[in-house]
Design goal:
about 425 residues; elongated; 2 domains; binds S-adenosylmethionine
Length: about 425
C-alpha cells in the first residue's frame, strides 16, 4: 500500500507506529493506559495517545485501513470451553480489539503477543483468537506464526506470535514458512555503542566488587574438571556431601528435580573436592557472594576454554546466568538488564532501542528504569515491517517466506513450529 491510515492500540512507545510510518502509514488513533509510555510516544511522534481502551466506544475511533495491536498477554480464563467467541474473550483485552475490528472492518490487522499464546491452554486460546477473527471476516493463517528478531540477524532472541489478518474481500494470505535451520549468524557488535560514545559510562559499568564476584565464578568454571561443563544450576551451598546440603534436612519431602540437582552438585564437588574447597574459601570473602549471587547457571554450552567475559550475563533470582555471546536474551520489562561480558558493563538504553530496531533518533524516557521497561515491553520494529509487508501482499517478501524458498522442493518437512506443543 502506498498510503494508508492506521490505529495503534496498546501502543506503548510505538514500535508499530515507527514501522507503519516508515511504510507510508498515517496514524489516526493511538491508545495506552501507561502515562509514561504516552509521554514518550508523544515526544517522538507528536501524537497524544488516548487512555484505557476498555472505556472507549468503537464509534469514537476514526476510520482506518490497518489496526495494529500488541495486546497484553492476559490469561484467557474461559478459553477452551468453546462457547462462542463472545463468551470466551469477553473480559480480556483481545475482546476490545475484536469489537473495534467488527465495527470498523479495516482492510488489515496486525497483532502480536507472547510465544506462550500459541500453546496456552493446549492451543485452545490460539483457536479462539483465530476462529474469532475468521468469524468476523478475516483471512488468518491457521497456525500461529512464531518469529524472533534473531531469525533475521538482529541479535535478540525474542520469540513472539504474529497474527496477520486480511479482510476476506481484499485477498488471500499465503501460508508463512520459516526454516529454523537457516537462522543467520548474529553479532552483538551490530548494536553495541562504543564505550567512548556513552554519556555517563560509569553508571553502566560493573563496580570492582561485582567484577571480583564474577571473576570468582570465572575461576570456578575454568578450574573444575569434568567431561562436559555443567548445564545444571550450581548452588554453592550444595557443593558438599549430600548430607550437608541445606535440602537434606527435609530430604524425603524434596521433589525429584531438587534431589537430582543436589546430587549433581555433590557429585561435582566429590570429583573436584580440593579445588572447590579452596575456591569456596576465597569466593566467600566477596561481600556479594550470598543469596542468589551464590548460585550460577552456565548456559553457554560446552567448550574447552570457558571464559565468562566472552559471554552475556544476567543477574537473576536463580543466580548469575551466562549465555552464549551471539545474541541477547529477550529484553524484559522487569529489570534484568543484560551484562555485556567483553565490556564489563550493562546494556545501555540506546542499545536496547537498537535491539528493538528503533532508529538512533528515537528519544527514550529520561529515567533509565522507565526506558528499560518500555523497550522490554515493546515490539521489534523490523519485524512489524516484515509482517506488514507480507500481509499487504509484497511479492518479494511473500516468496522469501514461501515453502519452496525456505525448504526447497521436497527437501524436509516444514517445521515452522518446532516445539509448538
Ligand atoms: C505489550 S505492551 C505493547 C507495547 C507496544 N507494542 C510497543 O511497541 O511499545 C502492552 C501495552 O498495553 C497497555 N495497556 C494495558 N491495558 C490497557 C488498556 N486497558 N488500555 C490501553 N492500553 C493498555 C500497557 O500499558 C502496555 O504499554
Amino acid at each position: 500500500m502506498e498510503q494508508f491510515t492506521f490505529i495503534d492500540l496498546f501502543c506503548g512507545i510505538g514500535g508499530f507506529h515507527q514501522a507503519m510510518v516508515d511504510l507510508g502509514g498515517e496514524c489516526v488513533y493511538a491508545s495506552d493506559i501507561d502515562a509514561y509510555c504516552c509521554k514518550t510516544y508523544e515526544l517522538n511522534y507528536g501524537f497524544k495517545p488516548d487512555g484505557d481502551i476498555t472505556k472507549v466506544k468503537e464509534e469514537d475511533i476514526p476510520k482506518h485501513d490497518v489496526l495494529c495491536g500488541g495486546f497484553p498477554c492476559q490469561a484467557f480464563s474461559k478459553a477452551g470451553k468453546r462457547l462462542g467467541f463472545a463468551d470466551e474473550t469477553k473480559g480480556t483485552l483481545f475482546f476490545d480489539i475484536l469489537r473495534i475490528l467488527r465495527y470498523h472492518k479495516p482492510k488489515y490487522a496486525l497483532l502480536e503477543n507472547v510465544r506462550n499464546l500459541a500453546s496456552h491452554n493446549n492451543g485452545n486460546t490460539w483457536r479462539v483468537i483465530h476462529d474469532s477473527l475468521v468469524d468476523i471476516g478475516y483471512n488468518v493463517i491457521d497456525e500461529p506464526v512464531i518469529f524472533s528478531p534473531h531469525y533475521i540477524g538482529i541479535p535478540q532472541h525474542r520469540e513472539r506470535v504474529f497474527i496477520m489478518c486480511v479482510r476476506k474481500d481484499i485477498g488471500e494470505l499465503p501460508p508463512f514458512y520459516f526454516n529454523i535451520d537457516r537462522i543467520p549468524k548474529c553479532s552483538i557488535d551490530d548494536i553495541l555503542q562504543k564505550d567512548s560514545e556513552i554519556e555517563d559510562l560509569k553508571r553502566y559499568q560493573l563496580k570492582p566488587e561485582q567484577i571480583e564476584w564474577i571473576d570468582n565464578w570465572n575461576e570456578f568454571i575454568q578450574g573444575i574438571k569434568c567431561d562436559k561443563l555443567p548445564g545444571f544450576p550450581i548452588w554453592s551451598d550444595c557443593l558438599c556431601p549430600i548430607e550437608e546440603s541445606p535440602l537434606y534436612k527435609d530430604w524425603d519431602n524434596q521433589p525429584g528435580w531438587a534431589k537430582n540437582f543436589v546430587r549433581k552438585n555433590s557429585e561435582l564437588w566429590e570429583n573436584n573436592k580440593e579445588f572447590i574447597n579452596s575456591w569456596l574459601e576465597k569466593a566467600k570473602k566477596n561481600n556479594l557472594f550470598f543469596g542468589s549471587k551464590a548460585k550460577f547457571e552456565w548456559q553457554a554450552g560446552d567448550c574447552q576454554k570457558p571464559n565468562i567475559w566472552d559471554h552475556i550475563m544476567q543477574i537473576r533470582p536463580s543466580g548469575l546466568r551466562v549465555k552464549s555471546g551471539t545474541y541477547f536474551p529477550a529484553l524484559v520489562a522487569i529489570t534484568q538488564t543484560s551484562i555485556v561480558g567483553k565490556r564489563k558493563r550493562y546494556l545501555t538504553p540506546r542499545e536496547c532501542a537498537r535491539l528493538q530496531s528503533f532508529p538512533d533518533t528515537f528519544i527514550y524516557d529520561v529515567k533509565n528504569s522507565q526506558a528499560y521497561k518500555q523497550f522490554g515491553n515493546s515490539i521489534n520494529v523490523s519485524l512489524v515491517k516484515l509482517f506488514a509487508k507480507y500481509m499487504f501482499g509484497d511479492q518479494e517478501i511473500q516468496s522469501k517466506y514461501s515453502y519452496d524458498a525456505q525448504f526447497g522442493k521436497g527437501e524436509i518437512e516444514p517445521s515452522l513450529f518446532p516445539d509448538y506443543e
